[in-house]
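re: that complex we talked abt at group meeting.

here r the seqs, copy pasted straight from the sheet so there may be weird spacing, ignore it
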Amino acid sequence: MDKLVIEGGCRLKGEVTVSGSKNSALPILAATLLTEHTCIIKDVPNLRDTNTMFKILRSLGKNVEFDKGVVTITHARCTECVADYKLVSTMRASFCVLGPLVGKYKKAKVSLPGGCVIGVRPVDLHLKGLKALNIDITIESGYVVAKARILKGAHIYLGGEYGSSVLATDNVMMAAVLSQGKTVIESAACEPEVADLAEFLIKMGAKIKGHGTPTIEIEGVRHLHGAEHKVIPDRIEAGTLVIAGLITQGDIVIKNVLRRHLGALIDKLEESGASFGREDTLIRVHCKRRLKPINVTTLPYPGFATDMQAQMVSLMCVTKGISVITEKIYPDRFMHVAELNRMGAHIQREGPHAIVEGAAHLSGAPVMASDLRASASLVLAGLVAKGITSVSRIYHLERGYENLESKLQKLGAKIWREKE
Ligand code: UD1
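got the structure back, here u go
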């Protein structure tokens, strides 16, 4: 296993290009199960998670070729429609093969993903939505077994205790495109990645309206054909790089972004004293001073993304004064707090809130990554800490950031990989 070692204190400078979105690519790859024709997906990041999805698709009868960000998927054989526990348990997003499998083949057996370090993460909304489409669902030996004779469109309310669900919206939408009649999903997730999936499905011949809003309308069709699609830029990677620029008081230009997807983050950072240009496809981060404290609450899109919470906490650790961050999507997603405190941060956790008293500086320490975004927050803290920080268990980081280490090196960071 490798660890990342960072010598903090360098101001980042230069240009960096954001990769395609992991969270867009994963359901789009799963959607290729809806057709036996060839699909070409571009700008797919080379990550542990996308490679896990390739394995799942191969196990489900697809040929998958990956070359320089372009994935070509062709149909190889009829599928048993079984997504194995070994693969689904390593990546929750694998669960989104359920909707397309049962939509296309009228049967599926997909392992329940289980909880993870950021919380319990149930799948009740996925199952509720699929049941409404006339799919019979049972749980057998840790697997969801789904069967249907005819999928029928329905009016489905998909809101849950914590708001809308991204992958439940994806799963239901993917099953509904091949259902008979009309489906309306209310309280649908509005995340750009859901809209990107809908755009891909439309290219395949699906009839979808309202994606990107809380009400999605789907008119079922009989068949879908192959399609070509380029995934949107990764807004979470872009946001992480924005914070890397700010935390090091650097001067960087971030390319391949859709600024409109980063509205809540930019708004909060501007409130904190940062300023950015007006372009939509690049962001210049130029900051020469410590920022002011702010209060942030994570919410479903277009609110502040929970996937940016940990990175924001790192920035708060070095702002002047007391900031409060409230986690409304995953109230237990605070594994990074104890590690950041080991680096000299002053963070107190109270239920779903973290109260952060900004320190004049952090100090490097050996720390341990617990999940994907927590790993990113530790790397960010390492960039500004005095001395050496080593982040172990970086396989978490490799799940979701393509070449982060070399991108940061190119910006002048002193960061390298060592064997643990
Ligand atoms: C997706 C993202 C993940 C992000 C999350 C929230 C992908 C591959 N992953 O995960 O990076 O952190 O959105 O923006 O896109 N919930 C239920 N019942 C359900 C499903 C979800 O109660 O059936 C709850 C969850 O526990 C959570 C909230 O709803 O509290 C939102 O979760 P959800 O949007 O479903 O997250 P994912 O789609 O799994």
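couple things i noticed - The first strand starts at residue 2 and ends at 7. The longest helix spans residues 235-247.
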